[in-house]
Amino acid sequence: MKYENELKKRRTFAIISHPDAGKTTLTEKFLLFGGAIQTAGAVKSNKIKKHATSDFMEIERQRGISVATSVMTFEYKGMLINLLDTPGHKDFAEDTYRTLTAVDSVILVVDGVKGVEEQTRKLMEVCRMRDTPVIVFINKLDRDGKNPFDLLDEIEKELRIQLHPLSWPINMGKDFKGVYNLYDKSLLLFQPNQKVSVEESVKVDNLSSTVLDELVGQKDADQLREDVELFEGVYGDFDNDAYLRGEKAPVFFGSAINNFGVRELLDTFIRISPEPRSRVTTTRLVEVGEDKFSGFVFKIHANLDPKHRDRIAFLRVCSGKFERNKFYHHVRLDKDVRFSNPYSFLARDKDVIEEAYPGDVVGLFDTGNFKIGDTLTEGEDYYYSGIPSFSPEIFKEVINKDPMKTKQLEKGLNQLTDEGVAQLFTQHNGNRKIIGCVGDLQFEVIQYRLLQEYGASVQFNSLPFYKACWLTSENKAKLDEFTRFKTGNIVTDKDNHLVYLAQSEWFLNTEIGNNPEIQFHFSSEIHK
Ligand SMILES: Nc1nc2c(ncn2[C@@H]2O[C@H](COP(=O)(O)OP(=O)(O)OP(=O)(O)O)[C@@H](O)[C@H]2O)c(=O)[nH]1
Ligand SMILES: [Mg+2]
User: Fold this and answer.
1) Rounded to 10 degrees, what is the CA torsion of 94, 134, 347, 418?
2) Rounded to whole angstroms, how far apart are CA atoms 486 and 268?
3) Side by side, which strands form the sheet with 294-302?
4) Residue 91 DSSP label
5) Which letter does DSSP use for residue 288 in this model?
6) 66 Cα: distance to centroid of ligand 2 (angstroms)
7) Which residues neighbour 286 within 8 Å (Cβ) at sequence distance 6 or greater?
8) Which residue in 136, 258, 302, 479 has a CA-CA distance of 20 to 30 Å to 413?
9) Element (H or E) spanning 356, and its range?
10) pTM recorded for the entire structure
11) What pLDDT does residue 181 have?
12) Is the dihedral of CA 256, 262, 268, 271 positive or negative?
């Protein structure tokens, strides 16, 4: 393999969880160890995030939640790590699901107080579908949480995955003393600390040694011995291959905000986690070690930097070597494109790069050439498969509150919906604009961003639709007749395809039954 050494040192993973479990906090601590930022951005201090590095959008800072995936690259112990911090809220789940197609493994964060929550379950299902290797980090041990054995039971049952603890906590909450690292056989003692500290762990090869009693007291030392004996009997030796196959998830305990257990997690992660992996396309399996470059766009974001109104396509490199200024084949458009300023998401700054290798995420300035799922190759025609698309469930009409800004509004609507978080429809034979989303919060984000980034002020009026169906038919006359009769329900999407908006399942089924010559599709994919 030509680029074997480059592959060996790359790790690309996402941090996922239910909202508020601590993904962004954990991300920041990882970056600290990579030396990428000096002080962690005080997530949600005074209920407002001052500036978490990975929560860059103004609206995220205000609310203290992540609404979009951010990508950061850092170096740690000779490894190049691409970390994708995802939003937990279900209204932004599309972004998270797409991100999962671009990574090789995940760290799943579980709030030790709340245990397994709704969104954790859904995310785990997506990981299971793709056999993505998962590491579980049980967070917030500084708070009184559930008993660790109960937590493991709950996670195994609820997430239907076998666990293997690689660290073990000594108490929780105010009695929390530290974690014993089973992988290294070392003990890490807890000191609440928000700053970077390179905590020293104490090697305790033999748990029966009296050193342990001196460090944590006899009672807790005995408890730890008992616990370890108990689950060593249950779990046996750690099976790294089972983890790589996505069958077993190693578990770590810690407290992200206190920077506790984070370094152990990162150190173990770089040792056991997968290198960039080969991927399937619509025609064949593309081996990660192939000489020829290929990659796909999994995310598009406009105005990432408010000072430069750019649109960025996030490309995951899947094989070969990506080079600046070289022409590549844009499969969907069937044309050659090249990039003079591709950049990497080094947490400190945006750096223009000369080349990139599998696992890397490259930012490409986009003038409207890209859609999510687009593939670049050195000439071969295929698409990377498995990038989910979503059918909107909530529909609202856009009301322009400032007629002076009609142009800006139009541009904003077009660009923001290009990002794939919402779909824009236009009334058939009219010009009312309708936006379809999966979650209500998306509308708030769109409203906010239209104002901040485009100076356009809008209001949304709810519409009584529940589903969008793309229409096709061999019989053009029938289709024309149907659209004439159902004018109020017919819209066109951005590519001018006909779409029927259904008020309810009953209406939809009735129309399907009445119009056997028309096909109702539940996704726009049909036109790809
Ligand atoms: N007590 C305690 N609180 C923590 C810990 N880690 C994170 N938090 C707090 O949990 C809250 C949520 O943290 P975030 O990192 O923003 O959570 P998130 O998972 O990124 O949330 P979303 O991106 O909105 O899904 C913040 O108030 C953090 O300060 C921890 O170890 N202990
Ligand atoms: Mg977050």
Assistant:
1) -10
2) 60
3) 335-337, 328-330, 375-377, 294-302, 311-319, 361-365, 343-344, 351-352
4) G
5) T
6) 4
7) 278, 279, 280, 294, 318, 319, 382
8) 479
9) strand 355-356
10) 0.87
11) 86
12) positive
Nearest ligand (C-alpha, residue 87): 1
How far are the Cα atoms of 19, 106, 351 from residue 7, in angstroms, in the given order? Answer: 32, 18, 20
Q: Which ligand is nearest to the CA of 55?
A: 2
The two tokens of residue 53 are 């590095």
List the Cα angle 105/109/115 in 5-degree steps: 135
The model's pLDDT over 434-452, given as tens digits with 9 standing for 90+, comes to 999 988 888 998 999 899 8
The atom of ligand 1 lying closest to the CA of 19 is: 25
Q: What is the pLDDT of residues 57-84, one digit of tens each?
A: 676 777 778 888 888 888 999 999 999 9
Kindly identify the ligand whose nearest atom is closest to the C-alpha of 20.
Answer: 1
Cα 364 to ligand 2 centroid, rounded to whole Å: 24
Tell me how far the alpha carbon of residue 189 lies from the centroid of ligand 1, in angstroms.
22
Query: Other C-beta atoms within 10 Å of 245: how many?
Result: 12
For residue 27, how far is its CA from the centre of ligand 2 (angstroms)?
9
3-state secondary structure of 321: coil
Q: Of all protein residues, whose CA lies closest to atom 7 belonging to ligand 1?
A: 22
Given a contact cutoff of 8 angstroms between Cβ atoms, the answer to whether 178 and 171 are in contact is: no
Q: State the CB neighbour count (10 A cutoff) for residue 291.
A: 12
378/397 Cα distance (integer angstroms): 42
Cα 358 to Cα 106: distance, rounded to the nearest angstrom: 17
Contacts of 425 (CB under 8 A, 6+ apart): 395, 433, 434, 435, 436, 468, 491, 492, 493, 499, 501
485 close to 518: Cβ distance less than 8 angstroms = no
H or E element in which residue 463 lies:
none
- pLDDT tens digits, residue range 231-240? 888 888 899 9
Residue nearest to atom 1 of ligand 1 (CA): 140
What is the residue whose two structure tokens read 């058939």? 428
Category of 8 on φ-ψ map: left (φ > 0), alpha (ψ -120 to 50) or beta = alpha
Q: Which atom of ligand 1 is nearest to the CA of 17?
A: 19
CA 68/CA 199 separation, integer angstroms: 32
CA of 318 to the centre of ligand 1 (A): 32
Work out the number of other CB atoms within 10 angstroms of the CB of residue 21.
27
